[in-house]
Structure formats: C-alpha cells, structure tokens
Amino acid sequence: MKVTTLLIICSGLIFGSLGKPQFPEREKDPNFWNLGAQQTLSEALTLQDLNKNKANNLILFLGDGMGIPTVTAARILKGQLMGQSGEEMQLEMDKFPFVSLAKTYNTNAQVPDSAGTATAYLCGVKANEGTVGVSAAAVRSQCNTTQGNEVTSILRWAKDAGKSVGIVTTTRVNHATPSAAYAHSVDRDWYSDNEMPPEALEAGCRDIARQLFENIPNIDVIMGGGRKYMFPKNMSDVEYPGVAKQSGLRKDGRNLVEEWKDKKKDKVNKGFYIWNKKQLLSLNPNNVDYLLALFEPGDLMYDLERNTETDPSLTEMVEVAIKILKRNPRGFYLLVEGGRIDHGHHEGKAKQALHEAVEMDRAIGRAALMTSTYDTLTVVTADHSHMFNFGGYTPRGNTIFGLPFTSILYGNGPGYKIVSGGRENISTIDYTENDYQAQAAVPLSMETHGGEDVAVFAKGPLAHLFHGVHEQNYIPHVMAYAACIGQNKKHCVSQSGTDGLSPVLSTIAALLTVTRLLS
C-alpha cells in the first residue's frame, strides 16, 4: 500500500512539473531553431543534384509491423537509451533523404497480413492475404490454384542477373516475409509438410521449407530461425536435445540441411551450415560462398531476451551477410527483416516490439558503414502497421514506457483489463517489465494489424523515385529499375557490349519509363 501511495505521489509530482519546462537550455534561444532549420535547408538543396547512378547493390530493410507510431516511439526509446530525452533523437532511417508512403491493403483485405504484403514489396504484385509468391488469382489454402499463378521476386531477378543474394531475418526463414522471396504457396502456414493438409500434399503442393532449397537452389546467404522445419519428425534439436517441441517436424523423413550440405560439397565454392553465434563470428567471410545459418528451431529470441553469448544480434548477422555478398563484383540483393517487432505488438508487449525496432535501426547503421550511397540503394519500410499508439500529453523526456499513466496504448489486444469495474491502476504493477502487456481498448487474445499507410525511407541511386503516395507493389519495381534487373532493362545501355549496364536517364526517357510503370 505504501509503495502504491508513493508511486501515485510521484505521478502527481510529474504532473506538477509540467509548468517547469524540462528541456535543454539552448532550446529557449530562437537562434538554436533557426540555425538548425537553415542547416537542414542547405542539406536539402544539395538533393537537387539527383543520384542517377546504377545501383550495383540493393538492400531492403523490412520492419514487420513497423508503422509510423512505432518508428516515432523507437526514436524516443533510442534517445533515452543513450541518456537523452529522446524526442530530438535521429534514427538511422530518419537520415535517409527521401521518404514516401505505401498503401498496404491486400487485394482481398482492407487491413493486410504479412504474406500478401510481402508478395507486393518483393514480387511487385498485390495479392490475397495469407498467400506468398502467387497472384490474386490464387485462393488461400486451395492447392489447385497455385499452378499458373506464380510470381517471381526481386531476389530471383537479382540472382538471374548474376548478383549474390541473401535473406536475414529474426523470424523463421520460412515465415511470411522471407518466404515471398523464393516460395509460391497458397498458404503462408505451410512451413513444412507437417503443417499441410493431406489433400494439398497429394495434389503436389510443396511446403515452404522445401521451396527454400528447391526453387532458387543457390541463395548465397540464409540466416534466421526455423531449424525444426528442416529435419525429420522427432529428430532431436542440436541446441535443445530431448525437448520435444523443438524437435524436427518433417513427415517425409527428409533432412533438408544435410541435403543442402551434400550439394555444396560437390561445388568448388564453399558452403557452411552453422547454428550459433560463435560459429558465425568465427567465419572468414572471404572463404564463404554459401551460408545457411539457422539459430533457433523457431523464431529467434527477442533481442531483450537474447543470450548474447550464443545468439547473434540482427546487426551481427547483417554485417556478416554483407561481407560475404559484397565480394561479388556484379553486386548483391539483401533482404533484412526485423520480424519480431510484429510479434511484440501482437502480444501487446510494446517494450519487446520497440527494442526490436531499435535493434533493426542499429543494423541499418551498420550496413551504412559497409556500403556507399554511390552504388547502393537502401530502402527501409514496413509491411503494415499495428493498433499501437502513444499520447496523453506526457511531458518532454517522459520515459516512453512510464507514468503518470502508460502513454502507450493498443486499440485492441490482450492488455485489456477491467479491475473492480474500472481501468487497472498500473501504479500497483511493474509496468517496466519486459513482457508487460500495455493496456488495450478492446479485448482480444492477440492484437491486430493496423490499416494505415507505412513509411518508405530511401537513399542511394534513384532513391528520389520514392516520393508521394504509392501502392506497396511499386517498391520492387523502383529497386529493379535502379539496378537494371528484371523487366527494367530498356532504359539501360551496355558500356562494353556485355555487362556494366548503366541507366540512360535523359528527362524524356526517365519520364516515359516511370509513366509506363505507373500506368
């Protein structure tokens, strides 16, 4: 009772302090704001000299569920982790010079899921919810609607152009986002044959784990979780021996990892399979041509819960991936997913979600140090938003997770609680705990996605083509255009008669090509 009273008194003190501005002294001086704005204006004027180089490298950072409120809250959290009030902080993605909005709806859903959206921003075609790598003519869970409706991804286009390609995710490598890069499945949940109905198997449909290795056999870098979908049913996991729920799931008896290793033994190029951080950091990237790294049976651990001795961070995975991929003089395409932002939100665990977003921003910063905007187009976006927001007139520098009441709220989800006919008094509980479920307005066992547009941040060659508001499927078309891959080659000329394509970007040619893409 005394603790509760003390917390309530502290809350009152915070409210009372609103009359005394809690911000840096320099912000009282108009010159501080005027000079800052003038500097920003000067930097903006330099953007008139557009980067029209050919993009040799393409990087897409996908924050699963990272809507604009999540971006803002992550910015504040990042600043507060660095001892600042937070609001004035810059995320790495904030530094990108071009920003646009993407409309996220699926062809059959106003509020989308991660599968249909992944098909849009990877394959360039909008699709139905729950399906990956197939057009809207395919019907979810109906195997016989797969054939003839397959659509290929920008990862495939890059591979066909001779580039190295990679996938790095904090989820299972056969989860919705990464699977759209290589699979054609009418059901995102067909992770292995164990999750497929007998009639689908009999009709010839293949599980997503199989497709990872069979559709594009030589993906250069694959990093994430999902071990249990690759091994025979009941085969004990290397990290969790004897734990049934972590054991293999495949009913067909296949060991996809061993099959991958066997195929790589026959090649001059060197392939490595690893499953922990020590193995990852022990690799010499100059001696690695193919890497399969599966760090968990399912999704990777939340960054806050991660064992830093055995589990790599997203930043560490991205660094190794780029070191391997950049050895190819023809360049590379890399898909990076901060996938557990979404999971944190679904569980109502804002602290987990926001720390995942901050970690992805660190990975964006690491990639920036290893590449150049001269020849690398980097795009940061989200597949969809969430029913997440924060507000309530909290004072400057108020902890993003703190009192006088939690400014973070969900429109729906498991955080809905009524105690004695009223709202739960959070002063009596530990709202700073990692798994604290923020309050929600509507009771649901799992919080849902949001339907608003998401931000698209871009830098590098032709990044200025990300402008205004576009359909989400526009994203891979721009990236392919910048790199002269896929169907976007007509604007390119050969400097030597073979390779070395570069865009011909006269005003007329550029306008005609972009108009054709949009029509």
From TrEMBL:
Q: Where is the active site?
A: 114
User: Carries keyword Lyase?
Assistant: no
KW Signal (keyword) present? yes
**Needed co-factor(s):** Mg(2+); Zn(2+)
Instruction: Report the domain of life of the source organism.
Output: Eukaryota
- List the Gene3D superfamilies: Alkaline Phosphatase, subunit A
Return the GO cellular component terms, semicolon-separated.
Answer: plasma membrane; side of membrane
Name the UniProt key words of this record, in alphabetical order.
Cell membrane, Glycoprotein, GPI-anchor, Hydrolase, Lipoprotein, Magnesium, Membrane, Metal-binding, Signal, Zinc
Q: Where does Zn(2+) bind?
A: 64, 342, 346, 383-384, 449
Identify one Pfam family in the record: Alk_phosphatase
Q: Which family does it belong to?
A: Belongs to the alkaline phosphatase family.
Oligomeric state and interaction partners are given as: Homodimer.
What is the name attached to this protein's record? Answer: Alkaline phosphatase
